[in-house]
Specification:
The structure holds 3 protein chains of 3 kinds.
Chain A (H helix, E strand, L loop, with lengths): L9 H12 L10 H12 L4 H11 L3 H8 L13 E6 L2 H5 L2 H12 L12 E6 L11 E3 L2 E3 L4 H13 L14
Parallel strand pairs in A: 1-2
Antiparallel strand pairs in A: 1-3, 3-4
Helix pairs in contact in A: 2-3, 3-4
Chain B lengths: L7 E5 L2 E5 L5 H8 L25 E6 L12 E2 L9 E4 L4 H16 L15 H9 L16 E2 L4 E3 L9 H9 L6 E3 L6 E3 L13 H5 L5 E3 L12 E6 L8 E7 L2 E6 L14 H6 L7 E5 L7 H4 L17
Parallel strand pairs in B: 1-5
Antiparallel strand pairs in B: 1-2, 3-4, 3-5, 6-7, 7-10, 8-9, 11-12, 11-14, 12-13
Helix pairs in contact in B: 2-3
Chain C lengths: L17 H6 L4 H9 L2 H11 L11 H6 L10 E6 L8 H8 L1 H15 L3 E6 L4 H16 L15 E6 L9 H8 L23 E5 H13 L1 H6 L1 E2 L2 E2 L1 E8 L5 E6 L4 H6 L13 E5 L8 E2 L16 H4 L3 H4 L7 E6 L4 H15 L5 H18 L5 H14 L7 H25 L23
Parallel strand pairs in C: 1-2, 1-4, 2-3, 7-11
Antiparallel strand pairs in C: 5-6, 7-8, 9-10, 9-11
Helix pairs in contact in C: 2-6, 2-9, 3-6, 5-6, 6-9, 14-15, 14-17, 15-16, 15-17, 16-17
Chain lengths: 177, 322, 450
């Protein structure tokens, strides 16, 4: 991606403006986390030119964006698959069999935790508690929570996402992106 | 106590001192001086927002104030806790404090490379001093230590992240002394690192000061790297006419040669007047400087404490004038 | 008396929409407050109610509100902490997803009480779909005149917006939340100053948990005194409990404080007992950071009294034999679960979530995880158990924010109550890889005096 191609389409620029407008004049930096979510959903991951673009949009220093983008675990500063399968691995999910679900996905997709399939569709990531402990085990794909996982349910999910590999945040399709 | 100029009374390790309201426990202790002063690895008086992070300056507040004499339930960071009138504080006289401090020192060292023999900071390293005073000679940490690659951040500065204790001083320095900060703390937890994300040159007239504020050997002066152990150099107060800064510095001489230039630090290792890059990196000729005389080095440093049993230069005073 | 104050209408079709919520009595508390109460009256009712923070710390809400500084001409802010991330806790997501207007109504009441005209809900990034539900509900609230300028002719203005996190447990700590809301890394601030004096953009700020804010609605509707009648002692009102683990009916329950733990776990009204007829081994009653209780201290206190679902009873016995209500993340373990593995899992969580600012937490959480990993995988040494004890002791109380304590407590409690299981992992390094230890034997606790 060269610097020139980095540009949100008009509907997304409007969404950026809406995020900024939530905060008082001069406090536009507060929209940073939201804008980074938009950028990641639109550009796939937060490359350095993307982060520099976000810095320009919000009139802040590039380092301020790097600091934030590398702090929060949802942001990817390296390329990932179209669909991130984020399996919760924390306590309550673990005792309900999260580890088995992770191995099942690893075997099925032929990738390890943190890796992406060769076709670029799936990235498997284990994550910490997603707040679905009572419905364990679970995984999140895009913004969707998939709970009470079983191997059969995982099969179904993978099938579904392979056919239609869209799992974005922020209902981006609503913004014409 | 007069109403126009109210002072707060605070007792630290049994020593009483009167200070202005708003003074922190650490600064009150510094007014007393000596052993009652807690060590500080991240606090830096001239850097706004610094402090609170390293936890080496934790103290026990055994009496909150005259009004509310209850002790504070937890140890507090003396650098960021303002004193109250009648407060009583225990530093060295508290077993709890000494125990916690030993714990903090151990935490700071478990991932530290302990490469003092090859580190340029050796001899003027605050972590070295701290470990010497509070650390144990053996480690209980049996895992691989965290390492990072060394990087050049600009022509003059070497970042050796493995040694960093994440005091954030260099970040505050860049924020407050330069026009545009280009480095910061990236990632989080024990993966956190000082960095520029992409290899960027830190360039700014005052960025060299990050070297002086660094309490350890994470940011070192490339123009001096491996030239000499600091205790073989002779520190001299010197000044020059500079358009950019005060021009007041310390030149560290080897024979007639200026081996390096730093700002002048007080007994707590703090720079009071920051110097510009030109003075620091480019003025390496004795004729660039008006030499005032030998630099007085305070006791906190092993440069003068002779832990290395190297004879100090004859003209360097060994002790704090006190 | 069995009352539901928050989830009463949760089953009503369409309750997430403004109109249905309104038909079921929604926004009547706002009407009442704006028409008949001064801001201080609202604060007074909350004080009377005895409501305590539902996010985990249990600090009296009315008192917290009374700390807010009110310097002339400086805007104040009210923030909702919807960064629910404490393992075992998922009640706030449930409430926001099912009945978002209850939170919005609570936000209006709280903002009115504190004199705030610009309030925010900070929600964890992973709850992005809930954020969209909230934004829809907020738009409805604006459209119906509950938000915006001069609400219902009262002269009170309030703008409400949702902002997002992006994956960081630490942002549930209120000053880290504020930093994050300012678009920064979630590094907790050094206190003092406290948010009540210098919070968001250095302005006086109050941060409350979702459930706490929602509870203000019934308090205003029915009065603080009536609310205080519900529950037991200083644990007033109802509490949302997120139940998970090896039970028949995990999920979110609204309980009246003071029911027995035994009833909560075993009755069909609540968790319906242990799954597959297994035996209870342990319970973490208030989210991953609170001390784990061995089976014999779950339903009874060390003194042999019934353990109740309340702040006081769950804490009975201190950390020696008690725990905490915390956030109400109630995790139940059966006899097949391994305490060492669970402790390692939790310590990995805290290691992952440490912001890295202060040394004891940054270094200590990782160290504990490594030692626990070694123990769990049969490479541990007997000394490791004392080492762990010492590391947690050096973290606890010495960090900038409570994450250090949260990381230390589960390790301390696990060793305190399950030491023999840790020792077994050292003595039986092969066996521990294929088999679990089972129940620990009951210890006799001497009654500690004074």
């Amino acid at each position: 991606m060269s610097q020139d191609n980095i540009q949100f389409p008009e509907p997304l620029l409007q969404e950026v403006a809406r995020q900024i407008a939530k905060f008082p004049e001069g406090k536009q930096k507060s929209a940073l986390l939201s804008v980074l979510h938009l950028a990641q959903a639109h550009f796939g991951y937060l490359s350095e030119p993307v982060m520099d673009y976000v810095a320009r949009l919000l009139h802040i220093l590039p380092i301020e964006v790097y600091e934030v983008a590398t702090f929060y675990s949802m942001y990817d500063t390296q390329p990932v698959g179209k669909v991130k399968l984020e399996v919760c691995r924390t306590g309550p999910c673990m005792i309900e069999g999260a580890e088995k679900i992770v191995s099942y996905i690893e075997n099925k997709l032929g990738i390890k935790d943190g890796e992406t399939t060769a076709d670029g569709i799936f990235t498997l990531k284990t994550v910490e508690c997603l707040g679905a402990c009572g419905y364990a085990p679970m995984l999140q794909a895009g913004e969707k929570f998939h709970e009470h996982l079983t191997e059969a349910k995982v099969d179904e999910l993978i099938e579904q996402y392979r056919k239609n590999p869209v799992a974005n945040y922020l209902g981006l399709e609503n913004h014409g992106a | 106590m007069s109403e126009t100029n109210p002072k707060f009374k605070v007792t630290i390790d049994g020593v009483e001192v009167e200070v202005d309201p708003g003074t922190t426990i650490l600064n009150a202790a510094r007014l007393i001086g000596g052993d009652v002063v807690p060590p500080a690895m991240c606090y830096y008086s001239s850097l706004k927002g610094s402090g609170g992070k390293c936890r080496t300056c934790l103290v026990e507040v055994s009496k909150g104030s005259e009004k509310d004499p209850r002790p504070m339930p937890k140890l507090v960071a003396s650098c960021s806790t303002p004193i109250m009138d009648g407060m009583e504080v225990k530093n060295k006289s508290s077993e709890k404090v000494m125990d916690a401090r030993a714990g903090v020192v151990e935490m700071l060292l478990i991932n530290h490379p302990l490469d003092c023999p090859v580190c340029d900071q050796a001899g003027e390293c605050h972590l070295q001093d701290l470990a010497y005073e509070h650390g144990k000679s053996n480690t209980r940490y049996e895992f691989e230590r965290r390492t990072f690659d060394k990087v050049d951040i600009g022509e003059y500065i070497k970042l050796h992240m493995t040694r960093c204790i994440l005091c954030y001083r260099c970040v505050y320095t860049a924020n407050q002394l330069t026009e545009q900060r280009e480095h910061g703390v990236l990632k989080r937890g024990d993966a956190a690192e000082i960095g520029t994300f992409i290899e960027k040159n830190l360039k700014n007239d005052f960025i060299g000061n990050v070297i002086d504020v660094c309490p350890v050997g994470a940011l070192t002066d490339k123009t001096f790297r491996f030239r000499s152990r600091v205790w073989y150099t002779k520190p001299m107060d010197a000044h020059r006419d500079c358009k950019c800064c005060s021009g007041k510095a310390v030149v560290w001489m080897i024979g007639d040669e200026v081996a390096r230039v730093t700002a002048r630090k007080d007994q707590y290792g703090e720079v009071k007047e920051f110097i510009c890059n030109e003075c620091r990196f480019d003025k390496k000729d004795k004729t660039d400087w008006t030499i005032e005389g030998p630099r007085h080095i305070d006791k906190h440093s092993v440069i003068s404490a002779n832990h290395y049993e190297v004879e100090a230069p004859a003209h360097t005073p060994l002790l704090n004038k006190a | 008396m069995e009352r539901k104050l928050l989830l009463e209408h949760i089953g009503v079709e369409g309750i997430h929409t403004h109109d249905v919520y309104r038909k079921n009595g929604g926004y009547s508390a706002v009407e009442k407050a704006l028409k008949t109460m001064s801001p201080d009256d609202v604060v007074e009712e909350v004080k009377k109610s005895g409501l305590r923070g539902r996010g985990g710390a249990g600090f009296p809400t009315g008192m917290k509100w009374s700390f807010i500084a009110k310097p002339e001409g400086v805007p104040r802010h009210f923030l909702c902490n919807a960064d629910e991330s404490e393992p075992g806790t998922f009640k706030d997501r449930y409430l926001m997803e099912k009945i978002p207007h209850l939170l919005i109504e609570g936000m209006i009441l709280s903002s009115y009480a504190l004199g705030c005209n610009q309030s925010y809900i900070y929600i964890r990034g992973e709850y992005m779909y809930v954020l969209q539900i909230l934004e829809k509900a907020i738009a409805e609230a604006y459209a119906n005149g509950w938000l915006g300028k001069n609400i219902k002719g009262s002269g009170f203005d309030l703008d409400l917006a949702v902002s997002t996190g992006a994956g960081a447990y630490i942002c549930g700590e209120e000053t880290a939340l504020i930093e994050s809301l300012e678009g920064k890394r979630g590094n907790p601030r050094i206190k003092p100053p406290f948010p009540a004096v210098k919070g968001l953009w250095d302005r006086p700020t109050v941060v409350n948990n979702v459930e706490t804010i929602a509870a203000v609605v019934p308090i205003v509707n029915e009065g603080g005194d009536a609310y205080a009648q519900i529950g037991i002692g200083r644990s007033t009102g109802t509490k949302l409990i997120s139940a998970s683990g090896n039970v028949n009916k995990p999920g979110v329950y609204e309980i009246t404080m003071g029911i027995t733990v035994e009833e909560f776990i075993y009755s069909d009204k609540y968790l319906g007992g242990m799954k597959n007829g297994k035996k209870l081994k342990a319970c973490v009653p208030g989210g991953s950071s609170v001390p784990i209780l061995p089976h014999y201290l779950v339903c009874k206190t060390a003194a042999g009294e019934d353990r109740l679902m309340s702040y006081e009873s769950l804490a009975d016995g201190g950390f020696a034999t008690g725990s905490m209500l915390g956030s109400g993340g109630f995790i139940v373990y059966d006899e097949d679960q391994c305490i060492v593995r669970n402790t390692w899992n939790f310590s990995r969580f805290y290691h992952h979530e440490s912001c890295g600012q202060c040394s004891p937490c940054r270094e200590g959480t990782g160290w504990m995880e490594k030692v626990l990993h070694r123990l769990e995988y049969g490479h541990g040494k007997m000394e490791d158990i004392d080492l762990l004890w010492d590391i947690q002791r050096k973290i606890e109380g010495n960090t900038i924010c409570p994450l250090g304590d949260a990381a230390a407590w589960p390790v301390a409690a696990a060793i305190r109550h399950f030491r023999e299981e840790f020792e077994w992992h050292v003595k039986e390094p092969k066996l521990c890889m294929t088999k679990n230890y089972g129940l620990v034997t009951e210890k006799i606790f001497e009654t500690v005096k004074g």
